[in-house]
Amino acid sequence: MATEQPEQRTWRRPTAFYNHYVKWAVYVVITVFLLWSAWNMRISPARIMDGWNAAVGLVEGMVPPEYTTQFKNELLIEGLVESLAMSVIATIVGVIISIPVAFMAAENIAPKPVYWTGRGIITVSRSFHELIIAIIAVKAVGIGALAGVIALSYKTVGFFAKLLAEEIEDIDSGQMEATEATGANRVQTMLFGVIPQVMPRIIGLTIYRWDINIRHSTIVGIVGAGGIGATLLNSFDQYDYDFFLTIIIAIIAIVMVGELISTYIRGRIQ
């Protein structure tokens, strides 16, 4: 009796596309779009060389950095301290606002109207860059650190609330049900059935957002929202490139210290 031969199968690499024709059509569209983008930017070898020569001249004007003038050192220290203060205050204010918004935006614990309201707040907060918010805040409250705190707090809500809401949606519902079984009301269930599960995440996200706000606090000052950014922009506008480099080095040092602190604290918590 003849035995049946097993069916021969050939392996093909999995693809996310409907078929190979669609895949190559997408590749062609992407390639054409990239070529059109490069052409539309009018990039030319002469322009690249001019930019390279200007960059070399800029670097030569920066070296060595300026740190001998007492007045400039005072400006530098004052700007850095203000940036650090802005990042701390903005993080605290933003987190306080973000926590209830995150509970509103968690689908497993919020009614649908509340859920969509919370998601809408997060979407609006994430839609605009902090520089745009800083410009609006400067127009509203004037030049200074308050405008920077408003801008950074605003951006903190979109970042913090979104990630915390996703964490709340992944909690163990059994702990909530056990809390409710004891006769706890809605607020008590949130306090003792939800918050203990997400508290490590809240602390970790707070430290992480503070680290981000340190970096962003050095930028919003460019539009007059306080911090070291204003000093940075003024030094560049006055062609004081050596002091500009000093500020850049100081910003890098502050960001690195903040990164080390946040990494250590997150590691201890986790």
Automatic annotation (TrEMBL):
InterPro entries: MetI-like (IPR000515), MetI-like_sf (IPR035906), PhnE/PtxC (IPR005769). The chain crosses the membrane at residues 21-39, 84-110, 131-154, 243-265. PROSITE patterns: ABC_TM1. It is found in: Cell membrane. Residues 80-262 form the ABC transmembrane type-1 domain. It is a multi-pass membrane protein. Keywords: Cell membrane, Membrane, Transmembrane, Transmembrane helix, Transport. Gene3D superfamilies: MetI-like (1.10.3720.10). Pfam families: BPD_transp_1 (PF00528). GO terms for cellular component: plasma membrane. Signal peptide: none annotated. Belongs to the binding-protein-dependent transport system permease family. This is Phosphonate ABC transporter, permease protein PhnE. It comes from Halobellus rarus. The gene is phnE.
